[in-house]
Amino acid sequence: MEKGKGDYNAHCLILPYPIQGHINPMLQFAKRLRHRRVKITLAVTKFLYSTMQEFPEFVSIETISDGFDEGGRAHAGSFEEYFETFSRVGAETLMKLLERLKNLDCAVDCIIFDPFLSWGFDVAKKSGLLAALFFTQSCAVDNIYYHVYKGEIKLPLSDDEIIIHGLPPLEPKDTPSLIYIPGSHPTALKMLVNQVEHLGEADWTFVNSFYELEQEVIDSMAKFSHVKTIGPTIPSMFIDKQLQDDKEYGLSIFKPNTDACKKWLEQQAPCSVIYVSFGSLSEVGPEQMEELAKGLKASNKYFLWVVRASEESKLPKNYAEELSEKGLIVSWCPQLEVLAHEALGCFITHCGWNSTLEALSLGVPMVAMPCWTDQSTNAKFVSDVWKTGIRTLPDEKGIVRDTEIVRCLELVMDREEGKEIQTNAIKWKKMAREAVDKGGSSDTNIDEFVSALMNPPI
Ligand code: UDX
Predict the structure, then answer these.
(1) What global pTM score does this model have?
(2) Which UniProt keyword terms apply here (predicted)?
């Protein structure tokens, strides 16, 4: 079909790193493109495909290989082995996929790649395609990694404050954990720092953020890259008035206990419930888990706690039964529906970037308990820049004690100080909506991208 006249305006292939926190924002971006008549092919690993619980209908799904089709990352001897095999086998199988689509008269125009898979850029260029980088983390975090990549931040860090133009002064603990904890995950650090490798060369650079949220950082990054914010990529039914009828949620790797959560939330008073979740990857140590359990109990508030099946054994014995009146523990929930519920009063979060943006966009105050990677930087911004939450203070062993959890919850939910946080949360909710609304900063950036796809340079 001729572009612009037939079924679609252009064809983009989306290449996410195969974890929930990266698939969600890329898919939601894809949905906004699809709404503008861009055909979308989603490339996922064979293993991820075999574990998927939901299949979005607005994309064509194709598989590539990470070299571990039977078990994914868990079947690799080390992360290094996984990363290297995925780079090689992923690039080979993606090339074959592009060739096959071309032969089917369904050629791809642009690869939108997750910079964790920076080889996506090489494949695009070898195939003569446009390449768009899609950062799934904040501009602030990308900017920090850029300065490490350029050697302008030297590792290991000293105790001095870190000054980067466009960012507030940072203590080492405010940088991503892979940076401030020397040698903690060398391969992951390499992968994260190398995300910025193609920053100047890619045809577009997108970030799941919005201009008003990170204005100073984005303006400062303009010296070396024109990043285009296209977020928050919250599913349309929660935020985007243009797509209100679209009820399709996305692609879930875990099965949510939707009915149980909704039923339970319906019984609770407005703004009374604490929602607790540490995302799809973070592992909470047994001692920390116990303190959190004690803190929630001592708060004497109602709570909905997501404890993934792999973490369940760390809960105190009989805890769920003992607290069944006050708390509901589930292995996965429909997080956006939970955050959007009027019963929600506060979110105890690890500050993964999606969770942070989702809470900001739905006006939910946060208690930040960062675990690793970019979460410490997100927590810094939540507490000190956007002021929509408070960051917990760990003790000298790095554990956030029950008393500290109670203190933070009282501050955010009950006291006068919490009022400012609640007002800010509402302010950011409004601004997030405006960014994706017709003519908003993110909406305009997406329009410009689609228009450029329809009129490629000759
Ligand atoms: C990872 C990293 O850990 C994070 O720091 C990075 O910014 C993105 O990738 P993850 O730890 O899973 O992500 O956290 P987060 O970014 O918050 O993403 C989790 C996603 O799962 C969110 O979109 C959230 O809505 C969803 N979720 C979480 C559910 O749908 N149900 C749940 O029960 C828990």
Answers:
(1) 0.95
(2) Glycosyltransferase, Signal, Transferase
Same domain as 102, residue 10: yes
For residue 64, give the nearest of 21, 40, 30, 94 by alpha carbon: 94
Residues 189 and 289 in one domain: no
Do 166 and 220 meet the contact criterion of CB atoms below 8 Å apart? Answer: yes
The Cα–Cα gap between 218 and 139 comes to 7
Of 17, 20, 52, best ligand 1 pocket probe by most atoms within 8 Å of the beta carbon: 20
Cα 97 from chain centre: 27
Looking at the structure of the chain, the number of domains it has is: 2
- How far, in whole angstroms, is CA 292 from its chain's centroid? 23
How many other C-beta atoms are found inside a 10 Å radius of the C-beta of residue 457?
Answer: 6
Per-residue pLDDT tens for 383-429?
Answer: 999 999 999 999 999 999 999 999 999 999 987 879 999 999 999 99
Nearest residue (CA) to ligand 1, atom 29 = 335
Closest approach atom of ligand 1 to CA 356: 17
Name the β-bridge partners of 229.
207
Residues 304, 200 share a domain: no
* CATH, residue 280: 3.40.50.2000
Residue written as tokens 């799941």?
208
For residue 207, the cross-strand partners are: 135, 229
Distance of alpha carbon 246 from alpha carbon 235, whole angstroms: 9
CA proximity to 16, closest of 7, 52, 303: 52
Shared domain for 102 and 207, answered yes or no, is: yes
This complex has an ipTM of: 0.98
Question: And the tokens for 193?
Answer: 């720092």
8 Å CB contact between 221 and 166: yes
**Which is the closest atom of ligand 1 to the Cα of 22?**
9
pLDDT tens digits for range 333-347: 999 999 999 999 999
What is the domain range of residue 407?
Answer: 258-432
Same domain flag for 270 and 356: yes
The answer, yes or no, to whether any atom of ligand 1 lies below 6 A from the CB of 138, is no
- The amino acid that residue 100 corresponds to is R
Which residues does the chain have with pLDDT short of 50?
Answer: 1-5, 243-245
Model pLDDT, residue 436: 93
3-class SS of residue 116? helix
Same domain, 342 and 231: no
Token readout for 118 is 């920076």
